[in-house]
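Work Package 4 report. The design task specified in the project plan requires that, given a folded chain encoded as structure tokens, an amino acid be chosen for each position. We show below one input record used in the internal validation round.
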């Protein structure tokens, strides 16, 4: 078998779940020739000496973005490899077992925590990293997508500070890395007003400003050293004792460091709970360190907003 060139520019989730572990497997078996990827992604492939950052955008077309050439070419399951049947041929119970489960025969998680921990960043207290996500402005009701609003963050910051942690808060402005096609359509939109601004201690502030209200809460942007955002993420995350994150790309990246990760997800279907089963990729990446908190779309609509009470309960139980 000859050495393999990987040429990829999919969504960030696909790159973390389907591409990086495959590339590391090839590297460990002396089968990796070269990686052609998106601009800024080299640190994720630290184990490869032949990397070309060619692509300036991410494509959602999995028939042409390189995903089609991977052993796992679908983020949501690999039913043909696991069950030797198409997803539609499975029983209802088998479909539940298949969701989030991949073919792990050519799939190995690189040890980011070991490789990227260095003396560049020194923290005197245990570190909890909180990862939120940028969202486009939406009128009316809170969006159904997962995010932590300012009031929720205020409670989390207060609790973790009282428990003696240093908290690092990361919420990108969406200008730090290249975008996929969905994000390209929302670059001119401002972050949502509902949730990302709230009156705290008598003043209207946003989530990033909130960090300045606490001595032991640090905005990620204020401590990253150098201009390489992805390298800074990997180096700082390697110092974490735990994570609190929304699901998706943020949660997957946190999972790579295999520390306790309380993960908040909003789901449209009951079956989506299967993604966090032990054989699902979240737990496989994290070595079973993900603690999911599920908020259903039907419940969000009924209450006209998110409910973070279970999230706070899980945080207090773990940290």
């Amino acid at each position: 078998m000859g050495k393999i060139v990987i040429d990829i520019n999919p969504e960030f989730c696909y790159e973390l779940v389907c591409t990086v572990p495959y590339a590391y497997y090839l590297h460990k078996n002396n089968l990796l020739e070269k990686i052609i990827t998106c601009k800024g992604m080299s640190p994720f492939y630290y184990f490869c000496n032949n990397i070309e950052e060619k692509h300036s955008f991410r494509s959602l077309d999995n028939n042409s973005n390189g995903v089609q050439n991977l052993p796992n070419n679908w983020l949501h399951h690999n039913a043909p490899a696991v069950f030797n049947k198409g997803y539609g041929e499975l029983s209802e119970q088998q479909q539940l077992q298949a969701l989030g489960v991949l073919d792990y025969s050519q799939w190995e998680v690189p040890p980011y925590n070991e490789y990227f921990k260095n003396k560049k960043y020194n923290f005197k207290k245990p570190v909890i990293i909180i990862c939120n996500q940028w969202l486009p402005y939406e009128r009316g009701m809170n969006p159904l997508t997962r995010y932590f609003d300012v009031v929720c963050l205020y409670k989390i910051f207060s609790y973790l500070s009282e428990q003696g942690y240093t908290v690092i808060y990361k919420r990108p402005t969406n200008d730090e890395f290249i975008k996929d096609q969905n994000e390209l359509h929302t670059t001119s939109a401002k972050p949502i007003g509902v949730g990302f601004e709230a009156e705290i201690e008598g003043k209207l502030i946003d989530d990033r400003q909130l960090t300045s209200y606490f001595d032991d809460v640090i905005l990620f942007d204020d401590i990253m050293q150098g201009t390489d955002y992805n390298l800074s993420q990997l180096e700082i995350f390697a110092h974490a004792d735990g994570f609190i994150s929304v699901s998706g790309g943020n949660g997957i990246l946190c999972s790579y460091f295999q520390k306790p990760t309380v993960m908040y997800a909003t789901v449209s279907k009951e079956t989506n709970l299967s993604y966090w089963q032990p054989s699902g990729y979240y737990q496989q990446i994290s070595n079973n360190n993900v603690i999911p908190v599920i908020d259903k779309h039907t419940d969000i609509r009924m209450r006209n907003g998110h409910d973070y009470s279970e999230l706070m309960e899980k945080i207090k139980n773990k940290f």
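The two ends are 48 Å apart (CA to CA). Validation will be extended to a larger panel in the next phase.
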